[in-house]
Write a structure and sequence with these properties.
- The structure is a single chain.
- The protein is of the alpha/beta class and 818 residues long.
- Among the domains are: 106 residues, Ribonuclease Inhibitor (Leucine-rich repeat, LRR (right-handed beta-alpha superhelix), Alpha-Beta Horseshoe); 143 residues, Rossmann fold (3-Layer(aba) Sandwich), CATH 3.40.50.10140.
- It contains 23 helices and 34 strands.
- The strands form 5 sheets. It has a 22-stranded parallel sheet. Strands 31-30-32-33-34 form a 5-stranded parallel sheet. The chain has a 3-stranded parallel sheet with strand order 8-10-12.
- The longest helix has 26 residues.
């Protein structure tokens, strides 16, 4: 009453949303590969249409599918979406309103599709868009209409591809500033001057102008002119510089005083190299980079004059291929280029040596990176020239990824580099470490990761603050490094954390991917100043103590922070917890405190047992149980039952009555009851009738019980062989357990359906009401309420009547009620 039933069809959209998406089109596929951060990876799923995805998604990756069309309803309801990638599909058509509901979209990737034109309607509602990628689509023209007019927040833009032939004036209309601009225009044939010049400030510009540099240098110059500013880094890709003529467009960069220049995928001859040096003479160039260069010729630099490159600060050269390397001459003629830079990187260039004279020329060098080359111990001696004053200001040396084997040779070579602070010798072939080494006293950072070290020795410099020994075969670290602040030991074979006493100033410890089983609070407290720990991806044994400690650390309750995330800590054993994150498991109190639990259970059981015993004693339950057991034993005795039936059938009952009485009342029984009933007496009637009826035969336990038999059997046998049962009641009787047995046996015998019992006769020796009888004597209380009883008179004159009534009751003539 008062509530309305909600139709099922109104809940269906909500259920669909919770299950992964919503759509009125049942033919659309669904994608439910979303993580806890609402990032949905639907890439490489062979989708031909945009799949159904939860409307709560923040990131949606649809790359590398076979989607050909984006309709106006495919993305409806995704107002929260921040990132959308359709990279690597076959999208040829997009509805003008396809992106209208994506108000929060910040990144859109439509690269490597089949879009033949760009429609400004696609982007008019994307006011929050920051990054847009339109590379490698077959559109031929950009700027015929202001495609990006509404994208006022756009900061990263990439467009163009092999099909782009024309850039018009409206290409960047509406774009106010950019952090990066990427234009692939290798086949550009028409360019309206000023088309790319309206954006300011303009960050890094990447241009692919292979064709214009070869065939239309005026067009290439116009493009460079529009994007060149002193503060804007310029990246030129896919160039083929052969002679002086092919380098002329670079004069636009020189005129604009560009300070940061990079060439990628460059093919250049020695003649063109000299031409570039001449063009850039006097330009305040601070950074010059070549990534992926093929050198042709013989390295003839004679035509290079003494150019002014005093402002150059860094040379970065990577992936060099020299076609005729054995014909190439020394770089000594370019010494005017070598004496100024403070940072030089020659990476992955198959370089096996730098002549000592060339090294000596680099007098301002502070940073030298020769990683991933072919240096050996022998050629390193030549490269790190021993001339006095060579590399005197060098602070950082990176020779990782070479073919070095001797740490003693290396330490001897760098010992004289008195300003060296950082040394990276990782990914070499160091399999052993000498007992002692000499290092510069300034060395603070040492990286020997990725080698084959099995042990470490005091060869390590004591001045180190950061030491990286990752990805070796170490089983322990027992070298004192008092100044060390950070130690990286990931990827080794450590069974436990290193002793903290060796590293009194250590603040950060990394021991991921080892063979650690566990660690505890005492292990971490051995490091006096440890603050950060990364110990995930180990084979943890999830004991109760370890789980409790680690969960406490994850919550931040410990002094040391786990900085690699709780998802890195996975149980390896026991088996039922294998693969479970340590931070999410629950171990019960019973499992974690078995000894205490058993002790508590025993204690509780003892207390309960004591309480039960006290309760049973107070309720006389044990008495009831003993009586019931005795009665059942007697009842199920077939021998007695057959004896009873035979006796009744032959009328051979031995006694007229079985007398049940307390031993304390035996005097009354023997003085009054037995003589009166068993011995003939003369009465008034005797004078008339001359003879008294026959005496009665009584069964008394003191006289008639068979010795050597169980007392219960004697009681049952006496009752079975007696016509009636007489109970002599008194306070002594109710205090006697055996009297209680006899009373209850009589009651059971009377109501046993297989026998014919006579009612019991009650004699009260003293006044005794039902309320005076304890409640545990429930049978006696019941008999006193339902059975006629005789009360022993204290007056002598009333006793005759008592005996007459008792005899009459025993003979079955009637009953008297006092």
């Amino acid at each position: 009453m008062g509530q309305q039933m909600i139709p099922l069809f109104t809940l269906l959209p909500l259920l669909l949303s919770l299950c992964g998406g919503q759509s009125s089109n049942p033919g659309r596929p669904s994608c439910r590969s979303c993580d806890l951060h609402l990032s949905c990876d639907c890439s490489r799923g062979q989708f031909t249409h945009v799949p159904i995805v939860t409307s709560r998604a923040l990131t949606l990756d649809l790359s590398f599918n076979n989607i050909t069309m984006v309709t106006d309803v495919d993305l409806t309801g995704h107002e929260r979406l921040r990132t959308l990638s359709l990279h690597g599909n076959r999208v040829a058509g997009i509805h003008p309103a396809a992106f209208d509901s994506l108000w929060s979209l910040e990144e859109l990737d439509l690269s490597h599709n089949q879009l033949t034109s760009l429609n400004p309607d696609w982007f008019q509602e994307l006011g929050a868009l920051l990054r847009l990628n339109l590379l490698h689509n077959p559109y031929r023209c950009v700027g015929s209409s202001p495609v990006f007019h509404g994208l006022v927040r756009l900061r990263r833009l990439a467009f163009g591809g092999p099909a782009l032939e024309e850039i018009k004036m409206a290409a960047l209309s509406g774009v106010t500033e950019l952090e990066t601009l990427t234009v692939h225009a290798n086949n550009l044939s028409r360019y309206e001057s000023g088309a790319l010049s309206y954006v300011w400030p303009l960050g890094c510009v990447t241009l692919s102008l292979h064709g214009p540099f070869l065939t239309n240098m005026a067009l290439a110059s116009a493009v460079l002119r529009d994007v060149s500013y002193p503060e804007t880094p310029i990246v030129l890709e896919d160039l083929h510089l052969i002679g002086n003529r092919s380098t002329q467009p670079l004069r636009e960069l020189a005129k604009r005083r560009v300070r940061n220049m990079t060439f990628r995928n460059l093919s250049v001859s020695d003649e063109a190299t000299v031409s570039v040096i001449e063009i850039l003479d006097g330009v305040p160039l601070t950074y010059f980079s070549i990534d992926g260069v093929t050198l042709t010729g013989e390295g003839r630099w004679e035509k290079a004059s003494w150019a002014d490159f005093h402002s150059i600060d860094e040379f970065f050269i990577q992936n060099i291929v020299v076609l005729d390397v054995f014909k190439f001459v020394s770089l000594l003629r370019l010494k005017f280029l070598l004496q100024y830079p403070r940072r030089v990187s020659v990476i992955n260039s198959r370089m096996f040596v730098i002549p000592c004279d060339t090294t000596f020329l680099m007098s301002s060098l502070q940073y030298l990176d020769l990683s991933d080359n072919l240096l050996t111990d022998m050629t390193l001696v030549e490269t790190l020239c021993s001339k006095r004053g060579a590399l005197k200001d060098l602070r950082v040396l990176n020779i990782s990824g070479n073919a070095l084997k001797s740490l003693s040779t290396l330490s001897r070579l760098v010992e004289r580099l008195h300003k060296l602070t950082h040394l990276d010798i990782s990914r070499n072939f160091y399999s052993s470490m000498p007992g002692s080494c000499s290092w510069p006293s300034t060395l603070r950072y040492l990286n020997i990761s990725g080698a084959k070290l099995t042990t470490i020795t005091p060869c390590l410099p004591k001045t180190l603050e950061v030491l990286d020994l990752s990805n070796n075969d170490l089983q322990g670290v027992t070298v004192a490094l008092p100044a060390l602040r950070e130690l990286r030991l990931s990827g080794n074979k450590l069974l436990r954390l290193p002793p903290g006493s060796w590293f009194p100033n250590l603040q950060t410890l990394t021991v991921q991917s080892n063979t650690l089983n566990m660690f505890d609070r005492s292990d971490l407290r051995s490091f006096p100043r440890l603050q950060n720990l990364q110990a995930g991806q180990n084979k943890f044994v999830c004991t109760c103590d370890f789980v409790a400690f680690l969960q406490s650390s994850i919550r931040g309750d410990e002094d040391v922070r786990l900085t690699d995330g709780e998802e890195s800590y996975i149980c390896d054993s026991p088996f039922h917890l294998q693969g479970e994150p340590v931070g999410q498991i629950y171990l019960s109190f019973v499992l974690c405190h078995r000894d205490l639990f058993v002790s508590l259970c025993c204690g509780v059981a003892l207390v309960v047992g004591i309480l039960v015993c006290v309760l049973l004693w107070r309720l006389h339950a044990l008495w009831y149980l003993r009586m019931m057991w005795a009665w059942l034993r007697a009842k199920h005795s077939s021998r007695r039952r057959r004896l009873r039936n035979r006796l009744e059938s032959e009328a051979l009952l031995s006694y007229d009555a079985f007398v049940s009485y307390s031993e304390k009342d035996a005097g009354w029984v023997e003085t009054f009851l037995v003589p009166e009933l068993e011995e003939p007496r003369e009465t008034d009637e005797d004078s008339v009738n001359h003879t008294d009826p026959r005496p009665l035969t009584l069964c008394l336990h003191k006289r008639d019980f068979l010795p050597g038999h169980w007392i219960m059997d004697n009681i049952m046998s006496a009752m079975e062989r007696s016509r009636r049962t007489v109970f002599v009641l008194s306070q002594n009787f109710v205090q006697s357990d055996w009297c209680r047995y006899e009373l209850d046996f009589s009651h059971f015998w009377l109501f046993d359906g297989d026998t014919r019992g006579e009612p019991a006769i009650l004699i009260l020796l003293e006044p005794l009401s039902k309320d005076d009888v304890p409640k545990r004597f429930c049978k006696l209380r019941k008999l006193m309420s339902s059975t006629t009883y005789l009360e022993w008179p204290q007056e002598e004159e009333r006793r005759g009547e008592f005996w007459r009534s008792l005899r009459s009751a025993l003979r079955g003539d009637g009953e008297e009620d006092e």
